[in-house]
Amino acid sequence: MNEKNKIQILIIDLGSQYTQIIRRSLRYLGFYSIILPPEKSLEWIKVNKPKGIILSGGSSSVYDIDAPKIPKEIVNLNIPILGICYGMQWLAYINDKDTIEVKKEGKSYGPVQINFSFKNKSKLFEKLKENINAWSSHGDSVKKAPKDFIIIATSQDGKVIEAIECEEKKLWAVQFHPEVEETQDENIILNNFVIGICNCEKDYSRKDVIEEIRKNTKIELGNDIAIIGVSGGVDSTTLAAILAPALGNKLKAFFIDTGGMRKGEIEKIKNIAQKANLNLEIIEKYKNKFINKIGMVIDAEAKRATFRTIYGEVFHEVAKSYGATYMIQGTLATDLIESGSGGKSVLIKTHHNVDLDLGLKEIMPLSDYFKFEIRELANEFGLDELVSKRQPFPGPGLYLRIIGVPVTAELLEMVREADAEVTEILEKYGLYNKISQTVVALLGTKTVGVKGDGRVYGYSFVVRTVETTDFMTVKGFYLPKEVCEEIISTLSRHSEIVRVFFDFTPKPPATTEFE
């Protein structure tokens, strides 16, 4: 972004898991934006005078004592406002407190069909069909339009209000989430808001991102030395490739063999490092420590916390050997959101590379970005085959794919082999590159089976395949019957595997990984 250009769109974070996705969607459309908490928003607005404001969703009720305190003055500044989910409820509530219907039990998650067939179609919905499928994720709802507002979208044959507007006051609001890919509007709603309503001019280009990351990291690092742990995955490898030419000998890249890697992973990582012109050190001496320590716990959060502790110890030792005072992390927006560090969002699960306290200063150049954006950057370095097309793999690796029993070297090897076999089958049928992520996990509860006319008591495996763009929401990738049958046949040949399940549950309610 040109430094002379002011940021045109302010996103006020009200605690939604999807707040960063709003920002990502705006980047996709060609616009920079900034995310701020409500308490800092008014002062920023008065100084920077944005062209538009977006109020995110959130998990609170407008009636909660600790609900986000949005400055009411923002509605009187003659700046267009788009309220999403909680943002819509707040706009209705401040105009008429009796408009909100509190849902006492549970929340509404999932698809909803939105109808826009009104005589005077809103500017917000121009170029849209009369009906689209959208994503709903809320508790409370707006039961009637407040004074001076009109209803511009409904669902359930007009029974449920899905959008309202007061064009005179420049206020628009939707109950569903236009920012997520499950809302099938092709980003038209957000585009209508920023261009058609706010008159914004495009100011974001992917070509600027690499130079911006390099420049900002060099400024933050100064004359100090930094370390970067390269996992071989998309994020850390692409970041190392971006920074290595700019930082030179001030950046020390290394890979830790944790014992939880996929089959043939280390060789692949060496090839990737060579392709990316990285001088990468392979560190193997901590493998048994990871296996032994993580094998002492079963609970998913305890497992992640143990991995995080050992990971931090290794980082600290490596940093000391290099004389580094900084650590650079390939942490994405998704990691920050799920770990509860992304604005006001709640904790979903602990991430090994978020909020580490190692006495090292952290730099996270990718913390505003999502997976598909990093894949695009990887292509700029010719890493498309080795990195950008690889499916994501969690930092703790196969440790998270042994569920309900203590991790052992033997179980890790069983899961490693099963993962490789499933991957081979998916590649054989031309499905691997169509799937965003494949999870092959061992379920710790043993069940009875029959093999060779004899009774066996063995493990069950579950194969989970999903598709997504940003990993904040996912939907199941349903495998054809013949693929499922071959996976079952292949995995059940193992002497200790007696059952194979398939999981296509969307997110939400499930997360991508089981742990």
From TrEMBL:
Protein name stated in the entry:
GMP synthase (glutamine-hydrolyzing)
InterPro entries reported for this sequence: Class_I_gatase-like, GATASE, GMP_synth_C, GMP_synth_GATase, GMPS_ATP_PPase_dom, NAD/GMP_synthase, Rossmann-like_a/b/a_fold
**Cross-referenced Pfam families, in alphabetical order?**
GATase, GMP_synt_C, NAD_synthase
Function text:
Catalyzes the synthesis of GMP from XMP.
This protein's pathway reads: Purine metabolism; GMP biosynthesis; GMP from XMP (L-Gln route): step 1/1
Could you tell me the EC number(s) of this protein? 6.3.5.2
GO cellular component, alphabetical, reads: cytosol
Q: Which UniProt keywords apply?
A: ATP-binding, Glutamine amidotransferase, GMP biosynthesis, Ligase, Nucleotide-binding, Purine biosynthesis
Q: What are this entry's molecular-function GO terms?
A: ATP binding; GMP synthase activity
Residues the record lists as binding ATP: S231, G232, G233, V234, D235, S236, T237
GMPS ATP-PPase domain segment(s): 204-390
Q: Organism's domain of life?
A: Bacteria
